[in-house]
Amino acid sequence: MSTLTVPAQVPSVTEDCEQLRKAFEGWGTNEQLIISILAHRNAAQRKLIRQTYADTYGEDLLKSLDKELTNDFERVVMLWTLDPAERDAFLANEATKRWTSSNQVLMEIACTRSSKQLLEARQAYHARFKKSLEEDVGYHTNGDFRKLLLPLVTAYRYEGDEVNITLAKSEAKILHEKISNKAYNDEDLIRILATRSKAQINATLNQYKNVYGNDIDQDLEADPKDEYLDLLRATVQCLGTDEGALTRVVTTRAEVDLKVIKDEYQRRNSVPLDRAVVKDTSGDYEKMLLALLGHGDA
Amino acid sequence: MSTLTVPAQVPSVTEDCEQLRKAFEGWGTNEQLIISILAHRNAAQRKLIRQTYADTYGEDLLKSLDKELTNDFERVVMLWTLDPAERDAFLANEATKRWTSSNQVLMEIACTRSSKQLLEARQAYHARFKKSLEEDVGYHTNGDFRKLLLPLVTAYRYEGDEVNITLAKSEAKILHEKISNKAYNDEDLIRILATRSKAQINATLNQYKNVYGNDIDQDLEADPKDEYLDLLRATVQCLGTDEGALTRVVTTRAEVDLKVIKDEYQRRNSVPLDRAVVKDTSGDYEKMLLALLGHGDA
């Protein structure tokens, strides 16, 4: 659920721009006026405000905000005003300038966005910082962090549902060998995580659990002293979580061929689809999915 | 100069498609007919033929060609019929299945295309092979080859003209140190080549020559036994060659501010612009550029 509240009667975009301009003018800045406008407009509305503002006053709204605001308030207003790709670019750039813990931010942007979103963030990075994201990530990091982060931020993963089970088995074996030997910076381990599609990684992680008994992140034991290991574990968690998969599979394919879906789901995830539904869903959503899967009354 | 000859009177696209379909039908294939059409149509015409063929016969022309033709003839017709991004995807895929020398193909595609073209090749790779280019490159290569090729094929370089001379100096120093120590697989050396913009790499290579006396590829000595070193030298040559730069700089900025261009050109390339023009151009082209640079009569 979104928490954003937009007034029932939204002022015209021209009016919003005039009010913002007014908030910047004169002695001091009218922060309350800025909040009353920007904090109550959705993404499309904010985008339109930025365009109109630039057309009207010949200056990017971001630039005006940058001149007028400071510190945490500036940061929250600016991040909120940026579109998602620009926001990622900004956060990533910030992360390349800070200490190691911000590697987590870079990993999250690289691993939780779709291929298209990550690409758009890289394009926004060019536009804003006049260089590439990977340039700054490479320059900022070194050693194992660089070995993992550079391929993650430059990935353009395949996003289809096709899964190669033979490959999943052989790569689960590679992962298990490397982790058993504590070879956490191994090139093949990183290659698998950085280049395979999320569907393929999911299949590999499921094979891992089936064959070796543990979830992979149980085997990547926590070690508060080892920041790289923490980053690696978080990477596996981000890549291995595909929360929308269940709904996507059932709703897009239920009507096509129920039997094939079930077999395919079990083959890929090594768990029967019905059990996954019961485990991960509840209420009407669960009932709906189970009905689509052929349980209960018609 | 293009060597393609297109007839003065090109048949309609429908007619071309009918003729192609006829060439595939019946006993045997009419290769001469296929050549007489496809070898004499430009890229836009071939693209239109593919679209119309698919709309009319419900099958991709490539698929028909694949079924009807064999060996080298199939390969040349198919590569010619593909659009540039698909062609790159196809060639890259082929390269990932072959011996080491095909790493050269991957490097060329990665380093000689624009950022947009490389991205389009990666997108075409998804569409055709149902996986990512970097997946296959990572899986196919290992050791130093992988260390160099993976970041090259995933690069999305910044393409602006901005150059940071301080950085060029410090990275020229890094390159010289690593090469002097024969550390050809060094992470920083690879990072510089794989992530910096071509303009920045050019500036770095010029600094290298100015400070250390040799062109960098003279220092990356040839060694027929060392395929990796050969690949690295070829990479540097591809990235360091920016043949369109001279024309681009002069024509796009001559009218803006002549003095600034000259200073900037010398700063970046460490060669006066006039001398670069005289060295690299001839005839009317040279005269034109020199005139724009303020030489000779108005």
From TrEMBL, chains A, B:
Name of this protein: Annexin D1
Protein's organism: Citrus sinensis
